[in-house]
Amino acid sequence: MKIAVHGAAGRMGQRVVAVASADSRYQVVAALESATHPALGQDAGLLAGVGNLGVPLAVVGESDADVVIDFSVPDAAIAVLTHCLEFKKPLVIATTGFDVPQDEFIRESARTLPIVWAPSMSPAVNLLMKLTEIAAISLRELPTGVDVEIIERHHRFKEDAPSGTALRFGNIVAEAMGQSSHIHGRHGRPGERPRNEIGYHALRSGDNPGEHTIVFGMLGETIELKVAASNRDCYAQGALLAADWIIDKPAGLYSMNDVLGL
Ligand SMILES: NC(=O)C1=CN([C@@H]2O[C@H](COP(=O)(O)OP(=O)(O)OC[C@H]3O[C@@H](n4cnc5c(N)ncnc54)[C@H](OP(=O)(O)O)[C@@H]3O)[C@@H](O)[C@H]2O)C=CC1
Ligand SMILES: O=C(O)C1=N[C@H](C(=O)O)C[C@H](O)C1
């Protein structure tokens, strides 16, 4: 399968190039970056540390890619989505941090384009999302109440907070428990914690590739569901699975649950 990697010189883009180049099922035929990127023209394989692939870093344009994988920034992801709409290229969107209009544009675009969109491509994270849903449903009627807090830890370079994955975990809990209040951090004297509240806490430290803990706090006991990446390849592998899955699907908005059969 021929893939184009958008954001190819980034932390994730380099891992997608590297992991794909080591798997005979995939061929990186395009490595896409902004027009101002200083490495434009350089070989994507050399940038990713896997040797010359004969694929120069380039701006978004027509290619013979079967599918595009995007790990970039929100504005750029929307730009490449527009390109995919024009050239009818299935798209895997991994970028996070979209605003509401961008979110709506992605959903609208999926009416005419097959899109896999997930804040985490990690199989383990998406399985934990299912386990979190089960826990939330099971605990929602607990008479003494359950306080859900989401703690995420990422590397110092991450630009958005909380993570898209943490927000998705929160939405899963909110929907399962009929809760609607989302609070990001606490300071001052917020007083006693309301029962109908989900808290988010974003740690930024070192080179952590991604860690999420969902805390179910009760009176007398606590459940913590945790998933932690030790490197970025879980996301790259998941994105390639998504690319392989989406290639023959009709227009629509798909998640990693569809890709993984969860
Ligand atoms: N869904 C998932 O499983 C995962 C999602 N992510 C998300 O992926 C995104 C990227 O993460 P990460 O790789 O760490 O970030 P990086 O900043 O390392 O990579 C982003 C890349 O996008 C490039 N870029 C910026 N503007 C444009 C543009 N206009 N056109 C094309 N490329 C552009 C950047 O170039 P430049 O350096 O010049 O700005 C950079 O190379 C983030 O939103 C992150 O949250 C990350 C890991 C897993
Ligand atoms: O920026 C990152 O690194 C990651 N971002 C994604 C998110 O915001 O959920 C996925 C993963 O946690 C790594």
Automatic annotation (TrEMBL):
Residues reported to bind NAD(+): G7, A8, A9, G10, R11, M12, E33, A94, T95, T96, A118, P119, S120, M121
Amino-acid positions noted as binding (S)-2,3,4,5-tetrahydrodipicolinate in the UniProt annotation, renumbered to this chain: H155, G164, T165
Recorded catalytic activity of this chain's protein: (S)-2,3,4,5-tetrahydrodipicolinate + NADP(+) + H2O = (2S,4S)-4-hydroxy-2,3,4,5-tetrahydrodipicolinate + NADPH + H(+); (S)-2,3,4,5-tetrahydrodipicolinate + NAD(+) + H2O = (2S,4S)-4-hydroxy-2,3,4,5-tetrahydrodipicolinate + NADH + H(+)
Pathway(s) it belongs to: Amino-acid biosynthesis; L-lysine biosynthesis via DAP pathway; (S)-tetrahydrodipicolinate from L-aspartate: step 4/4
Top-level taxonomic group: Bacteria
Dihydrodipicolinate reductase C-terminal domain mapped to chain residues: 125-260
InterPro entries found in the cross-reference section: DapB_C (IPR022663), DapB_N (IPR000846), DapB_N_CS (IPR022664), DHDPR_bac (IPR023940), NAD(P)-bd_dom_sf (IPR036291)
PROSITE patterns on file: DAPB
Alphabetical keyword list: Amino-acid biosynthesis, Cytoplasm, Diaminopimelate biosynthesis, Lysine biosynthesis, NAD, NADP, Oxidoreductase
Residues annotated as catalytic: H154 (proton donor/acceptor), K158 (proton donor)
CDD domains the record matches: DHDPR_N (cd02274)
Compartments, as annotated in UniProt: Cytoplasm
EC assignment: 1.17.1.8
Statement: the UniProt record of this protein carries the keyword Kinase: no
A GO BP entry: diaminopimelate biosynthetic process
Assembly description: Homotetramer.
HAMAP family, per database record: DapB (MF_00102)
Family, as annotated: Belongs to the DapB family.
Full protein name: 4-hydroxy-tetrahydrodipicolinate reductase
Originating gene: dapB
